[in-house]
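Sequence design from tokenized structure. All designs in this work follow the same two-part layout: the structure record, then the generated sequence. An example of the structure record is given first.
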């Protein structure tokens, strides 16, 4: 006989693995029998690292930064902060605040690097600071006339506020109509496939957080002051320094998974949950299917789900239709309608290994390469003349992501689309040709002869979207919370555009509830909703 509680965790991404570790650490194996079911063979979800011919791709780009000190401490416990210069630090003579006694990235793999964030906007073949700043470069690129138009447009927005019942009005209130039309309207439509006037303002409140013209001005002024500010004092969108695992975000989650297994967690891959069974109003078991179609039932006392809400509700419904699940009821018809109407945006990343960039480094920031490459981590392509939404330069995230970091540039082009559409279904050869043609038109590379290697990666349900049936999400939350032993966590588990740290925090809150017996789940759902979470310590 055992008095251990059995906990089944659906999903091996940041939320699921955080929950597993929080349950099992510090002798938790004596109290909890933990099983993680991961539907694929990889860990980290969209925070995984893709390996290709000695080079590594970060899916989406992941800055390791949080205003939640629990999360920062958690990360550096898994991968300690560097205690010596990395390859590019040494070569470029960069000086960081090294962690006393920390590992040397040149000789040890389990290490977190300290990185400087540089991101810019590409618009009308000009580079602008990201987020938009009032620097001389910005004013020069815009020109006097456009600057004046944007300035007066912003002044108008200060005195004439629009009702924030959609994302378009949210942006106009903060930046004015002219800057909105230049830098937000086209890009938002490119990202979501919908005009901002059709999207809930909730998305802007989450992603842009406290950023506004006033926020930009305040940040620019405070940077002139001698006092060094901590990350906690800066708007999230303006953070300029972050941590990054030596081999990309997937390295951290692979390490967490390994730590979990060593501490007693049972981790199953190729285990896709297809049914969620219930008894007397509580979840009693799940049925998972392996890659060969074999099904296995797994019972538990507590269930933590990071699977997409749409799939979770359909799995409840499937159990209700299964004659073997005697007590299970199908999900109410109105709840399946809401769940199946929740939209997502999928995306395709095309990795191109190139000999040179045509772009010149006109900044004062030293970079690797011969000639030196631009220092950007991301380049946001706000220009509606291109389908690509964002470029990543992996050399600048970590020199260890690139096999030959001195003589090649490893770029990722991010394309937003929907699973099954024409772009999603393009052959790898065709999508690579398309990506090369866009980089050539943008004058980032000279042409196809510059490309040495390529890789296409398709990512399903990358971005939970805030339109269609999303307005009924509260009703769906109420229904799912009715299962007292079911906790929805993570980006897809809550259908919320969480950052990685927010996903982890939802898992921590859920585990805290399990450990203390707390029945209300408001704390789990309230992560990444409070304004104070974003803007104040």
């Amino acid at each position: 006989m055992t008095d251990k509680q059995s906990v089944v965790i659906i999903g091996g991404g940041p939320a699921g693995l955080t929950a597993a570790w929080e349950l099992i650490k510090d002798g938790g194996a004596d109290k909890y029998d933990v099983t993680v079911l991961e539907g694929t063979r990889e860990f980290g979800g969209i925070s995984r690292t893709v390996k290709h011919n000695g080079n590594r791709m970060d899916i989406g780009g992941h800055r390791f930064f949080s205003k939640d000190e629990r999360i920062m401490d958690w990360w550096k416990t898994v991968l300690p902060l560097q205690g010596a210069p990395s390859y590019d630090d040494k070569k470029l003579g960069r000086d960081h605040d090294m962690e006393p006694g920390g590992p040397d990235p040149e000789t040890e793999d389990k290490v977190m690097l300290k990185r400087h964030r540089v991101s810019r906007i590409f618009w009308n073949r000009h580079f602008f600071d990201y987020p938009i700043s009032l620097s001389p470069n910005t004013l020069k690129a815009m020109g006097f006339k456009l600057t004046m138009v944007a300035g007066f447009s912003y002044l108008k927005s200060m005195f004439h506020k629009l009702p924030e019942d959609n994302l378009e009005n949210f942006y106009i209130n903060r930046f004015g109509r002219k800057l909105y039309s230049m830098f937000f309207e086209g890009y938002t439509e490119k990202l979501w496939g919908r005009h901002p006037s059709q999207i809930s303002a909730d998305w802007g409140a989450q992603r842009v957080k406290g950023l506004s013209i006033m926020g930009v001005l305040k940040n620019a002024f405070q940077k002139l002051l001698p006092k060094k500010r901590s990350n906690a004092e800066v708007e999230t969108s303006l953070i300029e320094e972050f941590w990054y695992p030596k081999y990309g975000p997937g390295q951290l989650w692979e390490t967490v998974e390994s730590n979990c297994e060593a501490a007693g967690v049972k981790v199953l891959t190729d285990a896709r949950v297809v049914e969620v069974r219930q008894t007397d109003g509580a979840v009693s078991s799940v049925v998972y299917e392996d890659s060969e179609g074999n099904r296995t039932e797994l019972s538990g006392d507590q269930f933590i789900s990071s699977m997409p809400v749409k799939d979770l509700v359909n799995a409840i419904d499937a159990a209700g239709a299964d004659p073997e699940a005697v007590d299970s009821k199908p999900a109410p018809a109105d709840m399946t309608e809401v769940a199946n109407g929740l939209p997502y945006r999928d995306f395709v990343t095309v990795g191109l290994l190139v000999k040179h960039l045509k772009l010149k480094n006109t900044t004062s920031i030293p970079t690797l390469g011969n000639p030196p490459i631009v220092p950007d981590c991301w380049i946001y392509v706000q220009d509606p003349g291109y389908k690509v939404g964002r470029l990543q330069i992996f050399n600048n995230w970590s020199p260890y992501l690139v096999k030959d970091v001195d003589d090649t540039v490893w770029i990722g082009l991010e394309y937003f689309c929907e699973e099954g559409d024409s772009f999603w279904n393009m052959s790898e050869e065709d999508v690579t040709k398309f990506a090369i043609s866009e980089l050539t038109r943008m004058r980032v590379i000279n042409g196809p002869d510059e490309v040495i290697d390529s890789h296409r990666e398709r990512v399903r349900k990358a971005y939970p979207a805030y339109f269609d049936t999303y307005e009924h999400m509260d009703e769906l939350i109420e229904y799912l919370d009715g299962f007292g032993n079911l906790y929805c966590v993570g980006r897809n588990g809550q259908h919320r555009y969480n950052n990685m740290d927010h996903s982890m925090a939802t898992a921590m809150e859920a585990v805290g509830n399990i450990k203390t017996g707390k029945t209300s789940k408001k704390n789990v759902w309230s992560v990444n909703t409070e304004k104070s979470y974003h803007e104040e310590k």
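Confidence is low (pLDDT under 50) at residues 228-238, 531-537. We note this feature because it recurs in several other targets discussed in the main text.
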